[in-house]
TrEMBL record:
One of its GO terms (cellular component) is plasma membrane. It comes from Tunturiibacter psychrotolerans. PANTHER family: INTEGRAL MEMBRANE EFFLUX PROTEIN-RELATED, STAPHYLOFERRIN A TRANSPORTER. This is MFS transporter. Its main location: membrane. Gene3D superfamilies: MFS general substrate transporter like domains (1.20.1250.20). The chain crosses the membrane at residues 62-82, 94-118, 189-209, 247-267, 279-297, 367-389, 395-413. GO terms for molecular function: transmembrane transporter activity. It is a multi-pass membrane protein. PROSITE patterns: MFS. It is found in: Cell membrane. Residues 28-417 form the Major facilitator superfamily (MFS) profile domain. Keywords: Cell membrane, Membrane, Transmembrane, Transmembrane helix, Transport.
């Protein structure tokens, strides 16, 4: 069935053929990609200039490493909130607000840096403020991808987004280092970089202002409150094994690899005796490798599985950490870092794709927010640990410890597989009958609500039924149930009763909207094993609270399947 894609007309999924660059033929995505690339160049210029400015303000390896923590900690703290807001509110308006927030944060930092009124803690504070905006922006920014391209192009789209970021990473650090080195005062050079970065957000804002958004999923029900949205997102993660595997792989990888990002400036200045340009070249080497990987991932995915890509990247970065710890030759370190950047992008792009393809539209931003929280949590916590070890021992010891940790945890991490087997069909299921109408005089927020379904299952089908019904358990719990159970009648073994509880009638109605085609396949399998002239009997029961008026007595209603 054709998918209506904004501003480009219907796209027939069966006719979509990708060369890896096909998404760039879509005008809206192309405009977004160009604006994002320019903004990312400014961001990576700022990363280099800010970190080098910190090395001129303090000699503490811990404070220098905390620049990575200031960049990562906001996502750790706000990732879930960011995902919840992106699933509740208009993503276009949210993106415009947070892009403006980042422009203002960097603009203020530029002014303070130009006039020389910046301290290590002020630099950390404004870096933190900038990345609050980034943390709140990113889930919505990634969640709009399915609104711009058809589902079949999502892997290539994620790779192109990674190429955009890493093209900026290849060019930005060197440009940032060159600009800082080009001025007599570090403050002047860094301030100039900050000012350019502030301007780079304007292009993204312009694209967003002109975007005529058409959401893929729009609920007819009242919006969830933020707290409830966060709870439902966490509930989904709890009962989604595929998503959990992606999160485990993201955390174990970034926690140890964060040693490269957080200590590279220390290695450049102390061990290699390099200036800001030298540090920018080292940082840019990571970006150059990342660009190469991002533009070739389309072919790599055709030859290797996701698990093989992650395994090769992990083992190679063990070598990279040891090279940074003990080798002092830039001619060896630079090509090593280029391949490390390729390994980094191959891993993170693969995990990002697995997250986007493993969840339906209604929870996508929350899943991405959880992924970013996990990803940046590994970066932030790791940066603190490796910076602390480097300050109290030495940089080689910190890097060697990270290498050993990455190697030791590899057998554990590889048990969590991603992108295995056919992808689930997350197309929303189109119900053939309306929601049941209650006889009770209740509000939609009343609850809890218990839904009870009675099945008749022949003894010879009991094993198959229990296997199917326990798959359905995951569907119920992911979509909003707070409790679930299946019970067999001790007197009549053919009679089984499924019971699940929702917090309110409104939550039950939301769970109906969340059923996907893949979920319906599981539900249909369960119902097919019910053998009776009538379909399974379903009752809906709302918690009976004590009331003063004895006249208000009601009974449960019955209707079709939930």
């Amino acid at each position: 069935m054709p998918l209506e894609s904004p501003n480009i007309g219907p796209i027939d999924h069966t006719e979509v053929k990708s060369s890896g660059f096909t998404p760039l033929t879509i005008p809206l995505f192309r405009d977004r990609w160009i604006a994002s690339t320019i903004s990312s160049v400014g961001t990576w210029m700022q990363d280099t200039a800010g970190t080098w400015l910190m090395t001129s303000l303090t000699a503490s390896p811990l404070l220098i490493a905390l620049m990575q923590t200031a960049a990562s900690l906001p996502v750790l703290l706000l990732g879930l909130l960011a995902g919840a807001t992106a699933d509740i509110f208009d993503r276009r308006k949210l993106l415009i607000f947070w892009q403006t927030w980042m422009l203002a944060s960097v603009g203020l930092l530029a002014i303070l840096t130009f006039i020389g009124y910046v301290s290590p803690w002020a630099l950390l504070a404004f870096t933190f403020l900038l990345n609050i905006g980034s943390a709140m922006n990113n889930p919505a920014w990634q969640a709009i991808v399915p609104e711009l391209v058809p589902r079949e192009l999502i892997p290539d789209t994620v790779s192109l987004n990674a190429a955009s970021n890493n093209l900026a990473r290849a060019v930005g650090p060197a440009l940032g280092g060159l600009m800082v080195a080009g001025f007599q005062r570090v403050h002047t050079g860094a301030g100039s970089v900050f000012a350019l970065n502030a301007l780079s957000f304007a292009g993204v804002i312009w694209v967003l202002v002109n975007w005529k958004r058409i959401p893929l999923f729009k609920s007819a029900l009242p919006s969830e409150r933020i707290a409830g949205s966060i709870r439902s997102g966490l509930r989904y993660v709890r009962y989604a094994p595929d998503l959990q595997s992606s999160l485990v792989r993201a955390f174990t990888y970034t926690f140890f690899i964060s040693a490269i990002w957080s200590l590279l400036a220390v290695v450049a200045k102390r061990d290699l005796k390099q200036g800001p340009l030298g540090y920018g070249i080292l940082n840019g080497s990571l970006g150059l490798g990342a660009v190469v990987a991002a533009t070739t991932l389309h072919r790599i995915r055709q030859r290797f599985s996701a698990d093989q890509i992650l395994a090769a990247s992990t083992l190679y970065n063990v070598v990279v950490l040891l090279v940074l710890a003990f080798v002092r030759s830039p001619s060896i370190i630079i090509p090593t870092l280029i391949l490390s950047g390729a390994a980094w992008t191959s891993t993170m792009s693969t995990i990002n794709v697995s997250v986007q393809l493993s969840v339906p539209a209604w929870v996508q931003a929350r899943a991405l927010g959880t992924y970013m929280t996990t990803f940046q949590g590994g970066m932030a916590i790791g940066a603190i640990l490796w910076g602390y070890i480097a300050e109290h021992t030495s940089t080689p010891i910190a890097l060697t410890t990270a290498a050993c940790g990455l190697l030791i945890t590899f057998p554990f991490a590889r048990r969590f597989h991603i992108l295995q087997g056919p992808l689930p069909d997350h197309t929303p299921y189109q119900w053939k009958h309306p929601a049941p109408q209650l006889a009770l005089d209740t509000e939609p927020s009343d609850g809890p609500v218990r839904i009870s379904i009675e099945y008749r299952v022949p003894l010879e089908n009991y094993a198959e039924f229990t296997s199917a019904i326990h798959q359905l358990r995951g569907v119920r719990l992911r979509d909003g149930a707070i409790r679930w159970g299946i019970y067999r009648d001790a007197i009549d073994p053919k009679h089984l009763n499924e019971t699940f509880v929702m917090e309110s009638w409104l939550d039950y109605l939301r769970s109906r909207e969340r059923i996907t085609a893949a979920d319906e396949t599981i539900r249909a399998r369960v119902r097919a094993l019910h053998e009776h002239d009538e379909p399974p009997k379903t009752t809906y029961q709302i918690y009976a609270r004590e009331v003063a008026d004895p006249v208000r007595e009601h009974s449960p209603t019955s209707d079709g399947a939930p």
